Structures are given as structure tokens and as C-alpha cells.
């Protein structure tokens, strides 16, 4: 009995002289011992299972997922004929630097800025702007601050007149004296030595900015200069930084902004740029939203800039879709007990 069970195959066939004969049929049918014929049903089932798995993958994972790796480098330019130039663009050494003027390269005196607004309000017969409003208009264009925050006028001619007058008051208070912040000139020289393109942005008029640059001897250092005449809005709008990147012919992801306020950080990140915050008028703990915070520019090195400009996942295609957490029932209901007025 045991031998007969052991001699029965999984397919309920008993081996007889090398052939397989079906046991439970009234008529014996001889089957070939060829493995390719015996296992055809199993092979068909395996193929069907493979097809089902492939269909499941296609339904579960769209074909666009296949393009996530290797990721597309936005810095790549297939139209370049020179492969060395193309490879250089794809490396982290291909970057541009965008500097703000006051508080980053030169010393900034906020008292002059506040006093110029107070003097202008007195001349125009307006109420003096409070401190919180003066803080809000930092980094804005004069026309933008007058029309949107101070609400003194919306007439373009009046906006231009008051904006020019405010700059005249500021220049008179400032006295035309400009001084480099410690370490700024040395850092500019390092970037020039490594042939890193640089741009300068400011909400000051171009004439005043060029005069200031000539006084401290940095004319011709920057590859692009963006002033109040070149843009419609100031910070926190990223228009200045985006236009500077276009002039430098760099993609935003490979530009590093050097600013000194949270408005600069917000504008840089809005433009998809990295931001190095210089703690000149704000403490370090207030600038933690920046990618890097320093007190002086000479604390930085070219390696630090390359690390900031290194390729990150945000450069590749569209951002990852965040998974929405399902709302779970409160396993531990609140211990508060609602009391009805009738209970008393």
C-alpha cells in the first residue's frame, strides 16, 4: 500500500515501465515521459501569472515613473557641440552668484533709510509711517512702497516724483560715503579668481548705484547689474533675482543669492535659488530659513558654494507628490464631558 502511494506522481499517474498511465480512467492512456510535454500545464500557468504581474505593475506604476532615474539634469544643454562644455555645465562647479548691495557688500545704515521716509512724509504733508510699516517696506521699490503700503498716491507721475525725492534725501543723509563690509572685498576677489559669474541687484537708481561702485573701485567686476529701473517690483517678489539669472544665462537652480533679510530668503527660494544669509542687521537665529547663514562673507569658500549648487532632487522634473494621511478615528476620545444646562 505504501509503495503504491509512493509510486503515484503528483499528477495521479503511476509509472509503468518508463511510461505514465492514468490510474482512475477506465481506459489506460500512455503518456510520454518527455519533461517538456509533462510540464506544459505548469509552464502555461507560470506565463499567465507573469502576464498578470506585468499588468499589475502597469496599472499600479505609470510609465512616467521610469523616467525618474536616471534623473534629467536641468543644467544639461544637448545643443552644445563640445562635450567638455556640456559636462562642465552638469557639474556643481557651474554656478552664478547674485549679490545684494547694502548690508551684504557695503555697510548699511538703517537710520538713514527711516529718516528719509520720515522727512518725505513731512514734506508731503502725510502722517509719519509707524515702525512696523517701515520694516515692511524694507527691500521694496520706492514706487511700490508708496502706492501699496503707505498708500500716499497711485498716480504714476506722483510716484516717480516722490521716489526721486526720497532718494535725494537719502543721498544727502548718507553723504556719499561707502565702505566695504569686512571680508566682502576678499570674497569678491576669490570668485573673480575662479571665474564665477556675478550679478549685483539693488532697488537704488542705476545712477546712484554706479556712482557708489566707482567710489569703492568695483566697476566692471560684475557681469550684470540690476537696478530699480530694470524691474517692476522689489522684494519679496523674485523678479530682481530671476532677471539677474537671465542676464547671467544661468538656470535658477544654479544661482546662489547673497542677502541679509528674510525677504531676500523668501524671494530667492520663490525663484528656486539657494540663499546665503549674511547676519548684518538680523541675528543668526532669525535667518534660519536660509540654506546657509554667515556673519561675514570671507567665512565662505568655493567648496561651500559648490555644495550649495550641487544637484538635488528638486532639480529633477516635478516635485514628489506628498502622500495624504488618512484620517483615523480618535482611539482616545477627549476626556472633556459636555454638560447640559438641564443637568444643574
From TrEMBL:
Tell me which stretches of the chain form a coiled coil: none
Q: What is this protein called?
A: Uncharacterized protein
Which residue ranges does the record annotate as region Disordered?
Answer: 317-344
Regions of biased composition (Acidic residues) lie at 317-331
The lineage is: Eukaryota, Viridiplantae, Streptophyta, Embryophyta, Tracheophyta
**Cross-referenced InterPro entries, in alphabetical order?**
HAD-like_sf, HAD-SF_hydro_IA, HAD_2, HAD_sf, PGP-like_dom2
Q: Extract the Pfam families matched here.
A: HAD_2
Amino acid at each position: 500500500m505504501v509503495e503504491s502511494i509512493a509510486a503515484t506522481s503528483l499528477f495521479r499517474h503511476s509509472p509503468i515501465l518508463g511510461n505514465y498511465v492514468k490510474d482512475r480512467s477506465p481506459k489506460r492512456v500512455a503518456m510520454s515521459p518527455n519533461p517538456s510535454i509533462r510540464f506544459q500545464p505548469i509552464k502555461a500557468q507560470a506565463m499567465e501569472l507573469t502576464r498578470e504581474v506585468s499588468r499589475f505593475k502597469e496599472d499600479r506604476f505609470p510609465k512616467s515613473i521610469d523616467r525618474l532615474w536616471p534623473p534629467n539634469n536641468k543644467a544639461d544643454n544637448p545643443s552644445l557641440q563640445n562635450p567638455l562644455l556640456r559636462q562642465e555645465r552638469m557639474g556643481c562647479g557651474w554656478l552664478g552668484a547674485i549679490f545684494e548691495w547694502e548690508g551684504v557688500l557695503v555697510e548699511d545704515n538703517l537710520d538713514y533709510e527711516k529718516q528719509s521716509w520720515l522727512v518725505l512724509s513731512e514734506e508731503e504733508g502725510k502722517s509719519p509711517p509707524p515702525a512696523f510699516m517701515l520694516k515692511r517696506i524694507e527691500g521694496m521699490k520706492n514706487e511700490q512702497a508708496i502706492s501699496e503700503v503707505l498708500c500716499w498716491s497711485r498716480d504714476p507721475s506722483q510716484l516717480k516724483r516722490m521716489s526721486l525725492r526720497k532718494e535725494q534725501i537719502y543721498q544727502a543723509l548718507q553723504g556719499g560715503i561707502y565702505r566695504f563690509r569686512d571680508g566682502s572685498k576678499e570674497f569678491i576677489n576669490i570668485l573673480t579668481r575662479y571665474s564665477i559669474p556675478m550679478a549685483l541687484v539693488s532697488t537704488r537708481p542705476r545712477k546712484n548705484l554706479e556712482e557708489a561702485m566707482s567710489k569703492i573701485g568695483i566697476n566692471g567686476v560684475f557681469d550684470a547689474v540690476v537696478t530699480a529701473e530694470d524691474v517692476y517690483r522689489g522684494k519679496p517678489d523674485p523678479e530682481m533675482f530671476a532677471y539677474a539669472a537671465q542676464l547671467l544665462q544661468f538656470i535658477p537652480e544654479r544661482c546662489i543669492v547673497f542677502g541679509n533679510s528674510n525677504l531676500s530668503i523668501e524671494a530667492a527660494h520663490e525663484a528656486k535659488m539657494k540663499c546665503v544669509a549674511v547676519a548684518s542687521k538680523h541675528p543668526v537665529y532669525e535667518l534660519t530659513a536660509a540654506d546657509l547663514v554667515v556673519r561675514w562673507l570671507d567665512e565662505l569658500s568655493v567648496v561651500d558654494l559648490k555644495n550649495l549648487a550641487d544637484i538635488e532632487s528638486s532639480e529633477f522634473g516635478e516635485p514628489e507628490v506628498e502622500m495624504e494621511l488618512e484620517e483615523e478615528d480618535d482611539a482616545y476620545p477627549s476626556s472633556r464631558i459636555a454638560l447640559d444646562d438641564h443637568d444643574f
